[in-house]
Amino acid sequence: MSSRSANKTQTSCPQDGFIQTNITNLVKSFDDFHFDHSLLRGVYSYGWEKPTPIQQRAIKPMMDGRDTLAQAQSGTGKTGAFTLGSLAVVNVADPSPQVLILSPTRELARQTHEVTTSVGHFMEGLGVVMCVGGIPVRRNIDALAAASQIVVGTPGRLLHMIQCGALRVDNLQMIILDEADEMLDRGFRDNMYDTFQSIPQNTQVCLFSATYNDEILEITTRFLREPAKILVKKEEVTLDGIKQFYVQCEREECKFEVLCDLYEHISIQKLVIFCNSQRRTEWLLDNLERHDFTCSHMHGGMTTEERQLKYKLFKTGSTRVLITTDLLARGMDADVSVVVNYDLPHRDLPSYIHRIGRSGRFGKKGVAINLLTSSHQDLQTISEIQHRYHTLITELPSDIAELEN
Q1: According to a count of CB atoms within 10 Å of the terminal CB, is the N or C end of the chain lower?
Q2: Within a domain: 248
Q3: For residues 222 and 4, is the Cβ–Cβ distance under 8 A?
Q4: Which pLDDT tens digit goes with each residue over 243-292?
C-alpha cells in the first residue's frame, strides 16, 4: 500500500471509554452538524433521534475532510457514522463517483447500501450504487453510468469496475473501509493495495471497525495523514450489556445435547448459533431439524439469492434461529437476544467480539453462551479472550431463567 505523509498526533484524555487523538469537540445533536435540510430530514425520517457516541466523534472530522481512524463496539452506530459522513460531503449536482465504501461481505455492503439510500432519500439527484459479486457485471456497469455519487461494494467487484473503466475515480473525495481490520488483513491486502494505487493521492481515507490489532494499526500509519483517531480502551471493547457465559460440555459429542437443552429452557426471541465451518452449519441444521427444531442457516458457500432469503426469513421472524459461520459475525443488524458459540473462534479472536456483538446492540441487553470442551485448544482460547479483552466469562448458572433478568 502506498505511503502517504507521516502522522503527527496529540493525545487527548479518554472520555466515555474512548481514547481520542487530533479530534474536535463532540457534536451532540444532529442539528448541530449543520447538514443540508434534505439530509437532516432523512435522518429524522429514518428514526434517528440523536447521535451515538461514535457518531458524535467521527462525523465532524469526516465532514472537515480529515482522514479518520474510528473504533467502536458492535451495535453502537458505526454504519450510521460513515453513512452520514458520506452523505454530508457529496455534491448531488455532480453525478460522478465521490465516495467509495468497501465492505468485506455482500451482506455488509447490502446493509450499508440500504441505510445510505434510506437516509439520503430526500437528496434530489443522489445516486447510491451497489457493486458486489453475485450481481451481473453488466448491471453494475449500467448503474455506474447514471448518477453514482456514492458507490458501495466488495473489494473484488469494485476493483474490477475501476480497472475496466466503468467506475471513474477522477473526482473521488473519500474512501471508507468498513470492518477495516479485516479489509487490511492478509486476505484483502493485495486488493486494497491495487485499489489505493488506482485512486487520487489526495483522497480522504476513513477506517471503521470494532477491533484493531497492533499490526493493523501499524499498517494504517503508512497511508493515513494526521488522522482523527477515535479508539476504544482495550478493557471496554466488549459491551457491558452482554452477559457472557460458558457451558462445560467436556467432549465434542456432548455439545449437541447441551444445545438442545438450552433451547428447551431459554425463552428466545432470536438466536444466532456460530460455527467455524460450512460443513458444521449443515450438520447442525440437519440434526436440529431431526429433533423438530425450526431453524435456518447461512454460509459463504450459498448463492447470493439463497443467503438473502435465509437472512430475510430470520430478520422478519419467520425463523427464530439462524446457524451461520463468521459470515454474519460483522454488521448483522437483526435484533438478536442470544448468541451461542457452538465452536469457539480459535484462529481469529477478534471475531469473538464481533459474534457476541450481534446481541446487545444499541445499548440493549444480550447474552452470549460458549459451548466449551475440555480440549487444550478450547481452554486456551477462552483464557486468551478474557485476557486480551479484559472481560470475564462465567459458568452458566443452573437457574437459566435468571438470564431473562
Answers
A1: C
A2: yes
A3: yes
A4: 899 999 989 999 999 999 888 777 677 889 999 999 999 999 999 999 88
Q: Last residue of some domain: 211, 233, 255?
A: 233
Are residues 164 and 249 both part of a single domain?
Answer: no
Helices (H), 233-374: 255-265, 278-290, 304-315, 350-356
Could you report the per-residue pLDDT of 280-328, keeping only the tens digit for each? 999 999 999 998 888 899 988 888 888 888 888 888 888 888 999 988 7
Residue 259 to residue 162: CA distance in whole angstroms = 47
* 185, 276: one domain: no
- CB-based contacts of 140: which residues, under 8 Å, 6+ apart? 129, 131, 157, 161, 166
Query: Do 345 and 389 reside in the same domain of the chain?
Result: yes
Name the nearest CA neighbour of 102 among 1, 234, 208: 208
Residue 349: strand, helix, or coil: coil
Q: What is the pTM of this model?
A: 0.73
CB of 70 closer than 8 Å to CB of 78:
yes
By DSSP bridging, strand 321-324 and strand 68-71 are unpaired
CATH of the domain at 158: 3.40.50.300
Parent domain of 179: 18-233
Beta strands, E only, 104-224: 128-131, 150-153, 174-178, 204-209
Residue with cell 443540508: 36
Q: Which residue has the cell 479518554?
A: 14
Number of domains in the chain: 2
To 5 degrees, how large is the angle CA 245–CA 111–CA 118?
Answer: 130
Domain match, 272 and 151 both: no
